[in-house]
Amino acid sequence: MKIFLIKILPILLGLVGFLILIRNRKKYTKYSLKWTLWLSALIFCSIYFVYTAIAYGMDTYYKMDYSSFDLNNNGNMELSEWTDEAKIAMEKVTGDTARTFAPIIGLIFSTVVSIIVLISGIVWSNLLKKTAGKTTHNNA
To answer: Which residue of 14, 66, 69, 103 has the lowest C-beta tally within 10 Å?
Structure first.
């Protein structure tokens, strides 16, 4: 249950959010405020999903690599099984806390990027409205 909550749940949340947003993509007109919010949320879910999925994949790969040095498959590394490669594999499994904190770091990184996209979209849509108003006013 702990592995599900820490590793798989963030991946599923990002994927489900992405799929829901893709399903509702035709409801919004381009460059409107709702479209900008939709795009920002889509980017948030996409980045969060990719970031957490890569971290989970790396963690699984390193654990499988480390367990390959367990020659008698008893789940414990005995003294006779220790090699330089096994020590390097163990350091990869235990020495990287970034994979552990990937859901939190991914949340922060995704939020920052999506806020930048949101602000840029709002500025862009306001510029489009101003230029559309000027061209309509000049033609009249």
So the answer is: 69
